[in-house]
Write a structure and sequence with these properties.
With about 375 residues, the chain is an alpha+beta fold. The chain contains 10 helices and 15 strands. The protein is globular, with a radius of gyration of 21 Å.
């Protein structure tokens, strides 16, 4: 049930007419308490959408009573009018919920085409429709309503010891996040304050969403929110809760890569033997963004030279004559030169595993990416998304 798996939450997803094709395009998630704690992380892109600016302000108070999300328009690069529209959206949600909450407790998120104002004559009435449709079973409908180029909706849950963490996500392109990725709403009925939520969320996104690198393009709208209702009455241990949040984020992050635009391969890049975790992440991200390598993987060619070339562009500590690379468990490069026979590598499966050993230290990191296909080029050139 996605964001309504945890007690204390209702949700809805409807077609407000924002999308020309008539598909669902407006979601509403409401925290019915008794606690209204929240935390959030947002894009590090310096060009931020109006709803990101708004929601960053809301989250400073640590209280979120509801989240309204729309697909079909990003409301990014829309000037003062775009921010006014975001404010009006939050005001409308507060009114539609009976005036119990104020607009300063309503988070707003949008996704779609950049540089186009939202059709407020459709969005605002849609909020009333969504509010009337709120249900404890509405999580799946909400997840469907936030899709853009996604082919499937994405949800995940973890339940243990009487409390639950649930979540929904959307994203299929512009997946190269800083702190977050596209739109994600997580909910829990654990009884925790905003500070505890913030600590767990930042730790989880750092090693999950922030290490998904599909196409090297960072969105203007990336938003991840974690809301706590406290409805279970349970206060879990910090480590136990953090592990659950990370598990849900990891599940959703993998689903994002599995649904990346045009992709035919999911690429797990593990960098080991690094002098620092930062070095490992830098190297992994460089490998993930190497278009020549991504094309080779699409063609099922274990071209390890392109891995070394990508490593060499970083500032990480390593000796070129000690680098080792394995593709699907075959060490095709040893000590910076030819290793095992590359013909031993099978790349028929969807998942391709690349291991890059810097042979310098004991730190490691995993980055997820995908191949570069003609379908990706077509999808991002044939129409605006």
């Amino acid at each position: 049930m996605s964001v309504t798996a945890a007690q204390g939450f209702t949700a809805a997803g409807i077609a407000a007419g924002i999308k020309a094709n008539g598909n669902p395009d407006l979601a509403l998630v409401v925290n019915n308490g008794p606690r209204l704690a929240a935390a959030g992380v947002f894009t590090s892109n310096r060009v931020k959408a109006a709803p990101v600016h708004w929601s960053e302000q809301v989250l400073r108070g640590g209280t979120v009573s509801a989240v309204v999300l729309n697909s079909g328009g990003a409301n990014a690069c829309t000037g003062p009018k775009g921010f006014q529209d975001t404010h009006a959206t939050a005001e409308k949600v507060a009114a539609a919920l009976g005036g119990e909450f104020n607009a300063g407790e309503i988070a707003v998120a949008s996704t779609g085409l950049i540089g186009v104002l939202l059709p407020m004559d459709k969005l605002l009435p849609g909020i009333e429709t969504a509010a009337a449709a709120l249900s404890a079973d509405g999580g799946e409908a909400a997840a469907i309503a936030i899709k853009t180029t996604d082919t499937v909706h994405k949800t995940a849950t973890v339940s243990q010891n009487g409390w639950t963490v649930g979540g929904m996500a959307k994203g299929a392109g512009m997946l190269a996040p800083g702190l977050a990725t596209m739109l994600v709403v997580l909910t829990t009925d654990a009884d925790l304050d905003s500070a505890a939520l913030d600590t767990a969320l930042r730790a989880a996104t750092r090693t999950t969403f922030d290490r998904v690198d599909s196409d090297g393009c960072m969105s203007t709208n990336d938003t991840v929110l974690l809301l706590a209702s406290g409805a279970s009455g349970t206060v879990p241990a910090h480590e136990e809760f953090a592990d659950a949040v990370r598990a849900v984020c990891d599940d959703l992050a993998r689903q994002l890569i599995g649904d990346a635009e045009g992709a035919s391969k999911d690429i797990r890049i593990e960098v080991i033997g690094a002098a620092s975790e930062d070095d490992a992440v830098e190297v992994g991200r460089s490998i993930a963004r190497n278009n020549l390598l991504k094309c080779a993987i699409h063609g099922e060619d274990p071209n390890w030279g392109r891995v070394l070339s990508a490593i060499g562009t970083t500032k990480a500590a390593f000796d070129p004559d000690r680098l080792n690379v394995a593709i699907n468990g075959v060490w095709v490069c040893k000590n910076g030169s030819v290793g095992e026979d590359r013909d031993l590598v099978s790349m028929k499966d969807r998942e391709v595993r690349i291991t890059a050993d810097l042979a310098t230290g004991g730190e490691s990191a995993v980055i997820w990416a995908n191949d570069l296909t003609a379908e990706y080029v077509h999808e991002n050139s044939a129409y605006s998304s």
